[in-house]
Design a protein that fits this description.
The chain has helices at residues 2-13, 58-64, 111-125, 165-168, 170-175, 192-205, 210-225, 229-233, 241-245, and strands at residues 19-26, 68-75, 82-90, 99-106, 130-134, 157-161, 179-182. The chain is an alpha/beta fold and 260 residues long. A seven-stranded mixed sheet has the order 2-3-4-1-5-6-7, with helices on both faces. It starts with a helix and ends in a 15-residue tail after the last helix.
Length: 260
C-alpha cells in the first residue's frame, strides 16, 4: 500500500513531456508575391524578411513574446534550403504543458523544398505532435509534388496558415491521410501572433481541439488586424469534428496525384 501511494505520488510529480510543434516557414519571396519594401521580400534575409525578421515575423515576434524563450538557434550551410533552425519554448502555467516549437526558416526561393518536407511530415514522417505551415500557399502556383506515404506511419494534426489553404492544401492533406485542425478560406496574413495563439491553446488543450484552436486564432487575428471577430471568423475554416478525432490508417505507398 505504501509502495502504491509512493508510486502515485511520483507519477503525479513527474512533469508531462513537452508538446512538440514543428513549424515550416518559407520566407516571403518578392519574385512570387508582394512582400513589402526593402528586405521584406528578400528570400534569404533572416533579419528583414516579412515572415521571419519583420515585426510579426516568426523569429522576431516569438523570441520577444511573453513566456517564450529561445533555446537554440542554428544556421544552415550556405547551399542548404534551410537558412535557420530555431527552437523556442513556451513556459507552462498551472494546468498547462510545456510547448516546444521547432521552426525552420526556408529560403523563399527554395519553397518547393519546404513544401515537400512539410507534406512528408504531415503524412507521418515527423515525431512532432503538430505540424504547421506558415507562409505563402505554394499550391496556388503549382501542382502538388508526388509523395509516397510512409507505411505504418500515423499522421499527426496539421495546421496550414496560408491563403485559402482549405481549397489548395485540403485535398492534398486528405489524400495523404493527414488530419487538418486549422485551415483557411480566404486571403490572409500568416503572421507569428497566430503561432503564439496556437502554442497557448495547445498548452491548455492539446493539438487536436480544432474548435478551440480556431477560436484562439480568430481572436488573435481580429486583435492584430484590427478587424471585428466576425470578419476574422470568415478567414478560418470550420473543421468537421470527425476529421480531427479519427486517426486514419494509411495504405501502403499511395501517390499524391497532381491537380488537373
Amino acid at each position: 500500500m505504501v509502495f502504491t501511494l509512493g508510486l502515485i505520488a511520483l507519477l503525479a510529480a513527474t512533469p508531462a513531456a513537452p508538446i512538440e510543434i514543428e513549424v515550416f516557414v518559407p520566407l516571403c519571396d518578392g519574385a512570387q508575391l508582394d512582400c513589402g519594401r526593402g528586405g521584406a521580400g528578400d528570400p534569404r534575409s533572416l533579419e528583414a524578411n516579412l515572415y521571419w525578421g519583420a515585426a510579426f515575423g516568426a523569429e522576431r515576434f516569438l523570441s520577444r513574446a511573453p513566456g517564450f524563450r529561445v533555446r537554440s538557434r542554428r544556421d544552415g550551410p550556405p547551399a542548404s534550403g534551410v537558412l535557420r533552425e530555431l527552437v523556442i519554448e513556451r513556459a507552462a502555467a498551472k494546468g498547462e504543458r510545456l510547448v516546444r516549437l521547432s521552426l525552420r526558416a526556408y529560403a523563399g526561393d527554395r519553397i518547393d523544398d519546404a513544401l515537400e518536407d512539410f507534406l512528408r511530415a504531415a503524412a507521418g514522417g515527423s515525431s512532432a505532435d503538430l505540424m504547421v505551415w506558415a507562409g505563402h500557399d505554394r499550391l496556388m502556383d503549382r501542382a502538388p509534388p508526388k509523395l509516397r506515404t510512409l507505411s505504418g506511419a500515423t499522421p499527426k494534426p496539421v495546421a496550414v496558415l496560408a491563403c485559402m489553404s482549405e481549397q489548395y492544401f485540403g485535398p492534398v492533406l486528405q489524400s495523404l491521410g493527414a488530419r487538418p485542425v486549422v485551415l483557411t478560406r480566404t486571403m490572409m496574413a500568416p503572421e507569428a501572433y497566430l503561432l503564439e495563439a496556437l502554442a497557448a491553446t495547445v498548452a491548455k488543450h492539446g493539438p487536436s481541439e480544432a474548435g478551440l484552436l480556431r477560436t484562439a486564432l480568430v481572436d488573435a487575428y481580429a486583435r492584430y488586424q484590427r478587424i471585428t471577430p466576425r470578419a476574422a471568423g470568415t478567414v478560418f475554416s470550420r473543421i468537421p469534428q470527425r476529421q480531427v478525432v479519427a486517426s486514419p490508417q494509411l495504405e501502403s505507398a499511395p501517390t499524391v496525384q497532381p491537380k488537373q
